[in-house]
Every structure is written in structure tokens, then in C-alpha cells.
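Sequence only, no structure available. Ideas?
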Amino acid sequence: MSPSWTVSLFWAAAAACVVVALAFVLPALLRARGGAHKTARRDVNVAVYRDQLKELDADRANGLLADDQYRRARQELEARLAEDALVPEAAPAPGAAGSRKLGFTLAAVLPAAAFGLYAWLGNPAALTTGPAVPAAAMAGADFGELIRRAEEKARANPDDGETWALLARSYAFMERWPEALAAYERASALLPQEASLLTGRAEALAAANDRVLAGQPMALVQQGLALDPDDAKGLELAGVYAYQQQDFAQAAAHFARLLRQLPPETPYAQDVLALQQEAERLAGSGAAVAVGRQAPGAAAPGAAIRGRIDIAPALRAGLDASDVLFLIARAGEGGPPVAAIRATVGELPLEFVLDDGSAMNPGNKLSQHKQVTLVARVSRSGEPMARPGDLEGTLANVAVGASGVALVIDQTRR
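Reply:
I predicted one. C-alpha cells follow.
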């Protein structure tokens, strides 16, 4: 849908909502309550007198009233009718005029107030501003064309920090790390107080250097977190670095703070939760490994899953035998991790056993579930947290206790 149609539909819907709101309020306020009440009472009285007159006529015709009795009753009835019908109307009640004024005031002020508050507190620019670059790419936009336009705009406006920031994030999304690093450096020089540019620059610098976070990348992360302690990329990188340094308590603290900012149902949030739980477990146990090797423990009878992991031939190119492989069992589709093992690409095809000895959290074991979703991931970063470019295979609704499970890594994560 074009932006003009989006804007038109939005304002049409907003105007309709205002009209509906006024339709509930104005009729009662604008109604002339005093005069209407008086007129209605008079009409009722006239109708009653007519009925009484008909009854008099019927009583006379049936011989129940003599002529003189009929005349006196009719004269009395007509006198009362004249008294009610000809009495001057009372002036409208003071409240009626006030209600009318209030109604007209609301009719003028309510729409102006509604749209004024939206302009002040809302985000009118969002009606015409497109989605962020990564979201556009996910939606199937021509990402190469978007980058080309951003490059042209950056060349035409070399001092526009926002354009350089957009270009840097676009390069990072495409994993063009050297170009992303150069763009981040330019953007952060123009916008030195923007925390996300410092932490994005740290990620690009580490990615261009075999994902080594020690040194300048972590110095940039610390600068970014000093500007914004809730910067998501900064918390992620700080957590990963603390994890690598086996400072599991600090890693858990970073991941917990990051997790509070994420929608809990997203796979990214579930990965962060897994890292947080594992870091907390390792901090409490004093262990020095992140995810255990295959070491079946004391599981409940039948509470193991046995199978084989392999990778599609088309995805083998470019992999190293030392690349890290994770097998993760989740509760349901996208639920929290239940169990995990760690291996290497060189061990593929890998015969695996998942049981309670592979639990990520002692309070959430495999034996407590009937079905799980298995995810096998070749991690380019060496960490359980999924990243673009990782290779994955997924198998849903795997029964706990199943054997002969075949899981193939056949997708590249976007």
C-alpha cells in the first residue's frame, strides 16, 4: 500500500472515531429538554381529555347520564382542557441552554483536542516514514537498491550523521563488515553521543577481526553503555564478552537487563534467556564451560531423545571443522530451552543423546516435557545466541523418549 493511501486511511479512521464519540454525547446535550418536556405533557393531557369526552358520549348514549349531567360534565372537562392547552409555556430550564452550549463547545473542542494531542504525544511521522532497513529487507525489499540510495545520499550529504548511521546498519545487516566499520566510524564521529553507533562499531570491528571482542571493541562497548546503559547491542556484546571470560555472574546480569527490553515470545529473547540461565547456573556451580558435551546423566526412564544430526551438502562449503555446533531442545515452538549439547562441525554426522544430564536449568528438565522442538545450529560466533549467517535445522513436535530422530541442517539464518 502506498504511503498516501496509508495516511488517508489513518485520518479517515481517526475522523470516524471522533464522529462516533460525538454521536454518543451530543444528542442528549443539544436536545431542548424544557420545551420538549412541556410539549409532550400537553399532548398527553389533550389525549386524555379526548378519551374522557368519548366516555361521556358513550355514557349518555347508553342512558347512564342525563342530559343535564352530560352538559355539566362536558363543560367541566372542556374548562380543564382549555386551562391546560392555553396556559403560556414556561421558559426553558437554565440547564437546557447550558447543555446546548456545552454540546456546541464539545463539538468544536473534542476533534481539535484529539488531533492536537496526537500531534504532540504521538508520532505523525510514522505515517509516512518507512520501516527500519532490516525490517524492509525481511519483507522482501530490494535491499541492494536501498543501500545504493543510502550511498548516494551519503555522498551528497557527507555531514549527515543519520544517513551514515543508516548506511552502517545496512552494511552490518548484509554482513559487509569492513564497509560497515567505515560507515560506523563516520557516523559516530558526526553523532558522538549516539550509543548505538559506538556499539554497532564495536560489533563491526570484532566481526572484521575474527569476532574478537577484547581490546578496542570492548572499549567502544563500555563507552556506549556509559551513554545508554540499556543499549541492546552493548548489553549483548558485554554479556558475550563476560561469558567468554567466564565471568558468568556479570554475563547473567547483562543478559537479564537485555531480556527486560525484549518481547518474550521472540526467538532472540529465548536465546538471551538461555544464555542468562546458563550463566546463572555456571556462576552458582563454578563451572568453566558453557554448554556440556554429551554426558548422559540420571534421567527418568524413557526421558531421552536419540538421533543423528547432519548438514545439507550445499551448506558445507566454507565451514571449518572447528566451527561450533549446538543442539538445543525447546519446550514447544520458540519456548525456553530445556536441554542442549555442544559439538563441532568436524563431528558431523553426529549421533546424539539428549536427556536430563543435558538440562539447561535444573528446574526445567527434559523429563518434565512430552514434546520438544529440536534446533541444530552451526554458530559462526561460537555462542548459543543465534545470529544472521548461522546455519540451522529445526524439527518440531519431537516426542521425549523418541529414537532414530533425523535432523538436517538445511537453512541459513537471516
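The chain is about 55% helix and 15% strand.
Hope that gets you unstuck.
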